[in-house]
Amino acid sequence: MTDLRNLVDADAACGGKALGLARAIAAGLRVPDGFVIGPAVFAELAGLGAVEPDAIGHALDAAARRIAEAALPAALAREVEARAAALGRLAVRSSASVEDAAGSAAAGVFESWTDVAPGDVWRAVRAVWTSALTPLAVGYARRHAHAIAIAVIVQRFVPGERITVYTRPIGAPTGDAVWLQRGEAIEKRARGDGDELVAIARAAEAAIDAPRGADVELVRPADGGAPWLVQARPIVHPVRAARTPPPPIVIAPLVTDGRRWSWDITHNPDPLSPAQAGLVAAVDRAAASPYVMRVCGGYLYTTPARDQPAVAPPADADELRARIAAIEARFALEPDGPADDLGAAIDRYVAFVRIWAWQLSPLIATARRVLLDRLARDGH
After folding, report:
1. Contact 10, 39 (CB under 8 A)
2. Taking residues 224-235, what's their average pLDDT?
3. N or C: which end of the chain has fewer CB within 10 A?
4. What is the pLDDT of residue 337?
């Protein structure tokens, strides 16, 4: 369990971020010195293994406790601490199996710490490992058909201005513009621009073989020295899939009962899963909503029930806040701890929907109408 290597020696097993930096170093770009704690250390300490879907929450919690409390191999601990001390202030960053790849950026999913004291290196490393055990990280990994594997990059921290360069426009993988982002401001440059930042970013794009563009993070030191490259990853361009409405045949069972049904395109534009359809049926059976709901051809349709909730308008903002707070106080779905079984959990969900649909939502809609009426009356 002493999977430790210099950053320049990182390979694909160390995750996309470490691999990208290793390739940038090999191309002669300025990358802060560092090393990588390989994924085998995390795997052994976390001890996850194969987990059944209905036990994943408990398994993640237990693994997170092991990460936080497990004793580290003495030889590994000494070497990491010695290397960290030689680097000075540190940047401790994740490099996961689903991170910084051509099809999965995972931006913001995993933890990264910067400006870390060498003596806090293990606290930062454990925090990065633990971030791989959150439902967000595990869900992202499953969505991209990956098992969670996470390496940790430990580098010398470089203070200065952070600049992100996109070597192709986001959403335009064949575009000719280069975007430079400083804070919230974005400057657009030509790919042939002789600017130093553009040149470094394009060299990084070539180094990591990202023909559709690279997202390159640079640091310009406060002392005015040459920029450092701290991240280079392929841009994951958004996919704009056209939504197609359901074929007319799916509404045939609905148009025969004389009521006007509406496709719930605002909240559910896609076909429902079997689990979602089951929840719709449970809410409808309990009359927990002022709308009758039907799933037809996988799509959700609604029609108003005969009785709609009548809510007295609030006199002022203070009354509205008080009434909303009183309703929200009833939203404790687990007053006595977790539900013992699926049926109990569904019953609590239905109870939640009943309060929301018959009380909170109508109150907010009524208050909004009152506000709009007053604004119109006052000439706004």
Report:
1. no
2. 91
3. C
4. 56
